[in-house]
Amino acid sequence: MADSIPLNPVRKNSKRILYYSSSRLSRYSVEDEPSNLDEMPLMMSEEGFENDESDYQTLPRARISRRQGGLGWFLLGGWKVLCGSCCDCLAHICRRKKELKARTVWLGHPEKCEEKYPKNAIKNQKYNIFTFVPGVLYQQFKFFLNLYFLVVACSQFVPSLKIGYLYTYWAPLGFVVAVTMMREAVDEVRRYQRDKEMNSQLYSKLTMRGKIQVKSSDIQVGDLIIVEKNQRIPADMIFLRTSEKTGACFIRTDQLDGETDWKLKVAVGCTQRLPAVGDLFSISAYVYAQKPQLDIHSFEGNFTREDTDPQIHESLSIDNTLWASTVVASGTVIGVVIYTGKETRSVLNTSYAKNKVGLLDLELNKALFLAQLVLSVVMVALQGFVGPWYRNLFRFVVLFSYIIPISLRVNLDMGKAAYGWMIMKDESIPGTVVRTSTIPEELGRLVYLLTDKTGTLTQNEMIFKRLHLGTVSYGTDTMDEIQNHIIQSYAQVASQPSSCTTSGSTVSRKTQASGPKVRKSVSSRIHEAVKAIALCHNVTPVYESHVGVNGETESAEADQDFSDDNRTYQASSPDEVALVRWTESVGLTLVNRDLTSLQLKTPSGQILSFYILQIFPFTSESKRMGIIVREESTGDITFYMKGADVAMASIVQYNDWLEEECGNMAREGLRTLVVAKKSLSEEQYQDFESRYNQAKLSTDDRALKVAAVVESLEREMELLCLTGVEDQLQADVRPTLELLRNAGIKIWMLTGDKLETATCIAKSSHLVSRNQDIHVFKPVSNRGEAHLELNAFRRKHDCALVISGDSLEVCLRYYEHEFVELACQCPAVVCCRCSPTQKAQIVRLLQQHTANRTCAIGDGGNDVSMIQAADCGIGIEGKEGKQASLAADFSITQFRHIGHLLMVHGRNSYKRSAALGQFVMHRGMIISTMQAVFSSIFYFASVPLYQGFLMVGYATIYTMFPVFSLVLDQDVKPEMALLYPELYKDLTKGRSLSFKTFLIWVLISVYQGGILMYGALVLFESEFVHVVAISFTALILTELLMVALTIRTWHWLMVLAEFFSLGCYLASLAFLNEYFGIGRVSFGAFLDLSFITTWPFLWKVSSITLVSCLPLYIIKYLKRGEEMLHQLFRQSVRVWA
């Protein structure tokens, strides 16, 4: 792919070390690396890696380049490093962040806490009453434009630098700063009111004297808090009791993790069994909780009751926690507070979005300041650097400050607000919301699009498609056969006496355990497979509540109302719900579930009850979940398990079809799950239970010890079936991706799903074209393997890359620059098994290594970090909640809307902002050129040509409306932009506002300014006193004509703006004639109204204006004719070919 790229290990002074050590997001720490990475040959043979990694120390040492220093380093960015280091040191000294520790929390006794914990107050305010003004001013003047205006305005207090009136400099700056401070103040007041509302919410607190009402901000660690249904949980708590008979409740976590599925939480058994709520104070108990952490999906702790003999110990896990900012969905809960305020999971995971600045703003600032500085240096050079030349240089910088008028910032901000309004009013993309109004033109500069898969490219609607039993496969068109088999099998079971069934099942289990393996019939295999799918899950059926006679809401008990009409399923994964709904469709329905049991309804209406003995939830590490149940009627104990094929392949008994069929289903785009079971004797289970409970009480390496005990059961399990569930693509995903690819946008898919499914979706969505090769990056775990695999990858040409998150982490650890450079040359990249942190890392890597603009799009809470890290973040309102949508810069309702958003609005916003910026720049440079010519005639004296009022009017009422009307211009119709997405490629090169176009506009401004000033001086020698009126009139006419020359698509508002501005100027000539004299009013040079109504004045002004504009018209039409000839020539060549 890129044979010229040297594959060398990362040096010690590379940016990667700084990146990873500062972000703290990598699972590897800097200390894990050798102090000096060794130099490796470019194409080392495999024998070189047979030795252990420690053998690398015998290879030659890498050369360590010295840190650059000196004035060049300081000017090119060293000052930023030094300032940042100083600020970090000061912040570290001032904050002295407290070390987080594990804690022991006594129930209902906050006074027994060993340390002082943070107050449970929500604070989203940026400032307080003392830091508001300094903070807002810092945020404003850290941008170059505002800082520049401040320096220029302050210079006018120095007598030797003063030019003109103070109000011409301070009034516009004060207006912009005042508007900004008012806006910030309003936002700050709103944040304060929202925080006050949240902190003032009342909760019931249990005390020795009964219930009392406390504010959310007054809750302390150790308090016993009662939270009602549909009430927000105020702090991180351990779940002690619930009003639900099952001892469990549901909570909604969409505001925490973005997932809309309800989560089942379990109360601590010891406290749930207490007779009354008041008994919580009659026992002596405490909770041992680990130190506050970021991970919202894990928790380790213990519950201990001391006043019993022996003491009662219960292990606590994530199922016993109630995190802050979640909402109770069922029943009333009581919990003990363990973390408050800044130590809660929700606050620890809060990431504050950076202030995003558009690339166009940065380019414009650099170009304008450079032009102003060069022009000032030229003027001082023409003076010969005589006298205090540095003072004259600064005076010229101030004099030419209209090259960067403050109206530039105002016009661009107003233009961006107009673009946002147009986007939200576009009927082609209904429901689109612009949340960040400062970067709409970034939509037209994107090179990389990083997208999530589930819910973004797919609908996150799971449909059961395939059941494979090894010898027979059932699809959607043969599901009725499965239903017939289920009906027949349960009809036979129902016809047998219960005693015979019990004895028969016991005998069959003994025969299966000891006797030879008997081949089962298809009907019995289907029966066992469907039964296993109906039992092995974490789905809970929920029945809608109904209002009783007395007006109180009564819960529909499961044993009273099993009707299908009001039953819904809740689970943490849509895959689980799809499987349970499928078993319902074939006749085996889940009708009730609590912590200890679940009930299934057969096709004949019989209820089968099962006791839940143990449940092992799904984790991303284990990639499987399991459940141990005891059937009530027979007493049989069965261990069911389902999971990914990579995890289950080594667990199930030997077979010759699983791997092949998993590959076949993955190629069809199906998400596969392997289902297996194992029958257990009473002795086997009792032995397992004692070891499992002991492991759960461990406080050190609990997860490893529990996993080791569970793995002792996961041996030689009987393979039952393989299921295939389809996640359907979003509407018009294929044409949208093709459109983006033709526009030159490189698309990377970052997903947490497995490699096979991600690859399949990439193919089915046409992210990877059918005739394109795919290079699957082999799993690597060390530097040697990564080196060999990268060497293999670099030999490939024009192929898509598929890599897992673990392999990506290793490559970035040792070969960051080389890997990113190779990956960026791929037409498409798929990263599977990516964590949210890794998604954000990839975005930052592309920004650092390519300097191109990136866009991230997702729909879930796990995409927020990626969206906020990208230059442009787009969120989709999906089934996973609105967290991504709220955190994004732009919110859309469907993925297909991104095509119209980028091709049409991205193009228009960028083109219009570029034209607007160039015209504001031209407006400033042309008058600065006239000032330079005027000063050169008067011996380079820094005397202003026009008075302050004319300068303010020139930048506002005389030219603002025509120039701002450019926000309505269109160079290409929306239909053409969508039909020819290749037009988008030109935008990414930044040609609409580059140094070339900037130089062209500088030449135009110099030419026109020179013509206007010299023409006024030459043609009006005898009327030199009227030179201001003459040149200013020609200047206004030239600006209006230049706007008309630039417009491609006329709008009636543009015509109105042209004539309105011209009318305002003519009126000012009549009523404000005292301002058209040279220098100050005290000079006595007033405008003679009789003079400007004569024909000589009119034709001479018209001649000057015509000479300044006509050549540009001629060049423009000659260029258009040349482009048309080139286009006709290319078309004729295609026809002949």
TrEMBL record:
GO cellular component, as recorded: endosome; plasma membrane; trans-Golgi network
Name used for this protein in its record: Phospholipid-transporting ATPase
Entry keyword annotation includes Magnesium: yes
Intracellular or extracellular location(s): Golgi apparatus, trans-Golgi network membrane; Membrane
Organism: Monopterus albus
Binding residues annotated for Mg(2+), in chain numbering: 452, 454, 859, 863
Gene3D superfamilies: Calcium-transporting ATPase, cytoplasmic domain N, Calcium-transporting ATPase, cytoplasmic transduction domain A, HAD superfamily/HAD-like
Pfam families: E1-E2_ATPase, Hydrolase, PhoLip_ATPase_C, PhoLip_ATPase_N
SUPFAM superfamilies for the chain: Calcium ATPase, transduction domain A, Calcium ATPase, transmembrane domain M, HAD-like, Metal cation-transporting ATPase, ATP-binding domain N
Range of residues in the leader sequence: none
Enzyme Commission no: 7.6.2.1
Reactions mediated catalytically: ATP + H2O + phospholipidSide 1 = ADP + phosphate + phospholipidSide 2
One example GO MF annotation: ATPase-coupled intramembrane lipid transporter activity
P-type ATPase N-terminal domain boundaries: 111-170
Binding site for ATP: 452-454, 576, 618, 642, 671, 751-753, 833, 839, 862-863
Active site, per annotation: 452 (4-aspartylphosphate intermediate)
Family: Belongs to the cation transport ATPase (P-type) (TC 3.A.3) family. Type IV subfamily.
Main location: Golgi
